[in-house]
Amino acid sequence: MGDTTMDARTGDVFAATRRMMTVPTELGSDFARELRPRDWKGYTALILAWQVAASVCFYAIYAVTPFIRTQFGLSTTAVGFVLTALMLGYTACVVPVGRLIDRYGEGRVLVVGLIGLGTTTVLVIVAPTYPVLLAVVAVLGAFYATAIPGTNKAVFNTIPEERLNVSMGVKQMGVTAGSGLSSLLVPLSASRVGWEIAFLGAGVVAAAVTVGFRVCYDTAGSNTDDSDTSLRTHLGDSEYVVLVAAGFFLGAGLFTTVGYTILYVADGIGASSVFAGVTLAAAQATGSVGRIGFGWIADNVFGTVTTATLSLLAIQAGLSAILFAAIPLAETPLAALLLFALLGAFILGFTGIYYSCIGSIVPRDGIGSATAGGQLALNSGALVAPPTFGYLVDARGYDTAWTLLACTTSVALVLCALLLARRIVHR
Q: What pTM was computed for the model?
């Protein structure tokens, strides 16, 4: 009898202990729920913050190249290999990461991705040799592979369809914002306290945003997929294949524009390097406006998401082709500034529409792998087109090189127009 009473009392103690341990957990869950966004604007801001923090870490590598060249005594070619390592790490991992996002949910993968970005950004500071630097930069690029498929899926999972394209455009603005911040802060830091402080700051910001994102985004409830959806599955869809092919040609125009605008305005037009930098900044600014503006048009002017985004992609590709062909006609720095500012709205402003279009033609549970394939196409254009452009500049001059980009974006126009016509016919 005494043993029975003792067991009962022991059971009461254990039950009370469990209740006491449960209360803080429940309070923590309630607190987290209170911090979560309540509407599409809040989720858009949260995803944008993640994208800005990630892009600051990634694009800081581009901004630091003059300083690591001096520190490690590198040739210009060796500096180029640093950027190649960054892009190869990114490109090699974007498809596998997209599949992980579909399987385990975008919330968890985005948290891990930003932790990795912040950590490797800080590790760049302590890289003792050039080979170690290449390895760290490649890993940094690999962690950035979580960005586009992860944030795209977050937009599709949290934003209502009638606000989808605007939210996607705002989120994509985080890429140019992060790039702009790093291009300003790294040189400024280098001139005053050393570029290492800027990298350390980027790591701290990444850590802070990781905590905020983990608390405010419902990572446990983010969409997961136990099916066998993968990039190979999407490649069986002819519409997806054509759209990704268009992305290759659009990506060629985008990354080549970013890579060669300053050189062309300085060498081809004869402007100062400061004016050439302002020209690229103007193109990036109008690109950000284009990402939001075309998203608003898609949400408010057209009908279905697929028809809207295909129509706008065709317009963006067509106008980009015309403007690329017109670049050789600009003879003064001011004319070049105006032309590149106009071009930026289209060739730098298409990515939000592109990802929305991909998401509208694939199953919702496969958006991670599908947009990863789309990003792979853009990156492939970035690996092929810039060196081809540079070769044409050396062999035939800038006029021929810009004509190449006019042709590539014309191919993208034809592919988008074919998809649009097919949609209209089968409506």
A: 0.72
Query: DSSP 3-state assignment of 136?
Result: helix
Domain count within the chain: 2
Co-location of 250 and 384 in the same domain: yes
What are the distances in angstroms from CA 318 to CA 51, 184, 254, 305, 420? 29, 32, 14, 20, 14
Of 113, 352, 142, the C-alpha closest to 213 is 113
Instruction: Annotate 161-191 with b (16+ C-beta within 10 A) or e (fewer).
Output: eebbbbbbbbbbbbbbbbbbbbbebbbebbe
| One domain, residues 372 and 273 | yes
Residue 2 has pLDDT above 60, yes or no: no
The residue out of 164, 190, 219 marking a domain boundary is: 219
Length of the chain: 427
Residue at which a domain ends, from 219, 246, 267: 219
> What is the tens place of the pLDDT at every residue in 381-401?
877 887 888 888 888 888 999
Q: How far apart are CA 352 and CA 378, in angstroms?
A: 13
Q: Is residue 128 classed exposed, middle or buried when 0-12, 13-18 and 19+ CB atoms within 10 A define those classes? A: exposed
Same domain, 266 and 390: yes
60 exposure class (CB count in 10 Å sphere: 0-12, 13-18, 19+): buried
Instruction: State the residue range of the domain holding 257.
Output: 233-426
Give just the sign of the alpha carbon dihedral 210, 226, 373, 245: negative
Contact 271, 333 (CB under 8 A): yes
Q: Let me know if residue 31 belongs to a domain.
A: no
What mean pLDDT is predicted for residues 402-416? 96
> How does pLDDT run across 257-276, given as a tens digit for each residue?
877 887 788 888 888 867 87
pLDDT tens digits for range 134-152: 999 999 999 999 998 889 8
CATH at residue 274: 1.20.1250.20
Q: Which amino acid is at 59?
A: Y
Q: Helix (H, G, I), strand (E, B), or coil: what is residue 396?
A: coil
